[in-house]
Specification:
Elements (H helix, E strand, L loop, with lengths): L1 E7 L3 E9 L3 E13 L2 E8 L2 E7 L4 H14 L7 E6 L10 E2 L4 H6 L9 H14 L5 E5 L9 H4 L5 H5 L9 H15 L7 E7 L3 E7 L2 E5 L21 H10 L3 H10 L2 H6 L4 H9 L3 H25 L4 E5 H6 L1 H8 L11 H5 L19 E4 L4 H14 L7 E7 L2 E3 L2 H8 L7 E4 L6 E10 L4 E9 L6 E3 L2 H7 L5 E2 L10 E5 L2 E5 L2 E4 L2 E4 L1 H7 L5 E8 L4 E11 L6 E5 H7 L4 E6 L5 E2 L3
Parallel strand pairs: 1-6, 6-8, 9-12, 12-13, 14-27, 15-18, 19-23, 20-23, 24-26
Antiparallel strand pairs: 1-2, 2-3, 3-4, 4-5, 7-8, 9-10, 10-11, 14-28, 15-19, 16-17, 17-18, 17-21, 21-22, 24-27, 25-26, 25-28, 25-29
Length: 595
């Protein structure tokens, strides 16, 4: 499949053409930049070489209109689809989406959330639809990767009316963070779903993302791309009280303040230059404002890395990308120094000798470092092309209802736990068989004890596992007084400890989780519904009174599995369900974990 990808900004157009088949190759790369006086700069790179210069295109629409001619001149044809980077997808666009008369107005309504980005993205879409009317146009959203963030990461502590109006944290650079995390896992030779990664995207725009076992858990950007790190021209974190202060002291209006925070702040506000290379050169020459800017920049990044390591209960890799992250060895050093306490040790020589040709992802940590430090180029256009191809290749699912089972609190015990709770050599008594073949509920029960309270007569599910896992609801975790994370079954590293009590004694163990909702299915049913193992889907549950959509529901495909969705008691209460019910897949492309 050959896909043309657009990344349109207010003052530039970047595009590329990718062949995705048995191997993935970028066969053309182009850009139009610095629109002014009826012209712009261009650069093209293809199999025949490179070319650059000026072109008579005075704006974004003219540049997009010139792309077909440029592709023809370079012998690039036979396109199958056009993919577009869309900055803000709001709360609803959780994956790639077809761009048409139904979706475009919904995206346009999100313009107040990304006033500098979405209008340019949509302009590219409209011109591309006119230029290639017979090709499918697909949008890939910067915010989609972060929709897995939990409510405690996305919610602002503001009045309810504000939150109902849409005030919440979204996060950006999602396509970059997703690619970088996947590339880091590939470099480390591990599954992304087994890793805790902090992705550090440092460019003119900058953000940090906590990727917890394959999912974005938090991001430094918020409602808009203003929040978080110091950037080229954007302020990053600022006390909201600054608006009132500046209105009273300087007589500035909201629009003036907002414009200055976007365009006159960050490195530019501190030094007069938004280019880190200039700032570093001036700092080395003794410019104290430049020195302050560098220290402030690195300090803010270090704070977020430390915060996200704490939030995830540890970190396996810190990955640098973006123009500054890829090219500034001194900035990487400033950021990483001081993390010895968490086992991160940078190697000076490796850090100085980074080369990124061929999409390399060199590791630059010292030998013996517990935390990997990786540098890699981001490849947002490649990631967009992959997601567009997956979206278009995804078969239309067969419409069928999925049984929904409500899982009450329960434990899966190891043999060590059984011995401690019931006595050496004790064997559990299989009781009621469960729908999943080979699984059963034991006759025995245990008690869970936390710092706040106890949960009595908790079910034990068999057979035994190598590692004890305790599954509770969010409400149960408050009853225990322990913050249990939402995790996929088996992802137990870094989970909190809880005490299990049985007739023969107690057993203190980690493994306490709120199980992420999921659907068990078999290969035959999965094929019929167009599902893949590890994919995420949205499921609508109707109870006759109201509908509730459960997003990002994990698909688990296993031979012989009974097809059913598992949710916990809190989720069942929210949906108005009893012990069981039915749900239906919402038609959309599934997103595979770690892609």
């Amino acid at each position: 499949m050959r896909i043309l990808v657009f990344n349109a900004g207010s003052s530039s157009l970047k595009f590329g053409v990718f062949d995705l088949g048995a191997a993935t190759a970028q066969i053309f790369k182009g850009s139009f930049e610095r629109f002014r006086d009826g012209g712009c700069n261009f650069r093209f790179q293809g199999e025949a070489g490179d070319d650059s210069g000026t072109a008579p295109h005075g704006d974004l629409a003219a540049a997009i209109g010139a792309v077909p001619e440029a592709l023809a001149e370079w012998g690039v044809g036979d396109l199958d689809a056009v993919g577009h980077r869309i900055a803000h997808g709001g709360p609803d666009f959780s994956g790639p989406a077809k761009l048409d008369d139904a979706s475009l107005p919904r995206i346009e309504a999100l313009t107040p959330l990304a006033p500098l980005h979405n209008p340019a993205n949509l302009e590219a879409v409209r011109v591309a639809m006119e230029t290639w009317p017979d090709l499918p146009q697909v949008g890939v959203f910067d915010t989609a990767f972060h929709l897995s963030n939990p409510a405690r990461a996305t919610t602002y502590a503001v009045p309810e009316a504000w939150r109902e109006a849409g005030l919440r944290r979204y996060g950006f650079h999602g396509t970059s963070h997703k690619y970088v995390a996947h590339r880091a896992a590939e470099e480390m030779g591990q599954e992304l779903t087994d890793l805790r990664i902090i992705s550090v995207h440092l460019g003119n725009g900058a953000s940090v993302c906590a990727v917890n076992f394959g999912r974005s858990m938090d991001s430094s950007m918020g409602l808009t791309p203003l929040e978080g790190l110091v950037m080229g021209t954007r302020s990053g974190d600022v006390d909201p009280g600054a608006f009132g202060f500046l209105a009273r002291q300087l007589g500035l209006g909201i629009e003036e303040i907002e414009a200055a925070l976007y365009s006159e702040s960050g490195l530019k506000g501190l030094t007069g230059s938004s280019d880190m290379r200039d700032v570093e050169d001036r700092a080395a020459a003794g410019d104290r404002t430049a020195q302050l800017a560098i220290n402030l920049y690195a300090y803010r990044v270090r704070k977020y890395i430390g915060a996200y390591a704490a939030a995830m209960g540890g970190v396996d890799a810190v990955v640098f990308t973006g123009g500054i992250g890829e090219n500034s060895a001194s900035m990487r050093r400033r950021i990483c120094d001081g993390f010895d306490f968490m086992g991160l040790h940078l190697d000076h020589d490796r850090n100085q000798a980074v080369t990124l040709e061929g999409r390399a992802a060199p590791q630059i940590q010292a030998y013996g470092s517990r935390v990997a430090v990786i540098v890699t180029e981001t490849a947002e256009q490649l990631q967009i092309a992959r997601e567009v191809a997956a979206h278009l290749a995804h078969p239309a699912p067969e419409a069928r209802q999925i049984p929904v089972a409500v899982s009450g609190r329960h434990v899966h015990l190891s043999s060590e736990a059984v011995d401690a709770l019931f006595g050496e050599g004790y064997e559990l008594t299989p009781g009621k068989p469960l729908r999943q073949p080979g699984n059963w509920a034991a006759e025995e029960r245990v008690t869970l004890e936390g710092p706040k309270g106890r949960l009595e007569r908790v079910a034990i599910l068999g057979p035994l596992r190598k590692r004890t896992q305790i599954e509770v609801s969010r409400t149960d975790s408050f009853a225990l007084g322990i913050d249990a994370p939402v995790r996929d079954s088996g992802a137990l590293d870094g989970t909190p400890k809880v005490r299990l009590i049985g007739p023969a004694g107690h057993f203190d163990t980690d493994g306490l989780i709120v199980a992420a909702r999921h659907i068990h299915t078999n290969p035959e049913d999965a094929a019929a519904m167009g599902l893949e193992d590890g994919a995420f889907v949205d499921v609508r549950i109707s109870n006759g009174v109201r509908d509730l959509v459960f997003d990002r529901t994990l698909i688990r495909v296993q031979d012989g599995a009974f097809t059913e969705m598992h949710i916990d008691t809190d989720e069942a209460n929210a949906a108005g369900l009893g012990a069981e019910g039915e749900g239906a897949l919402i038609e959309q492309s599934a997103t595979v974990a770690g892609e």
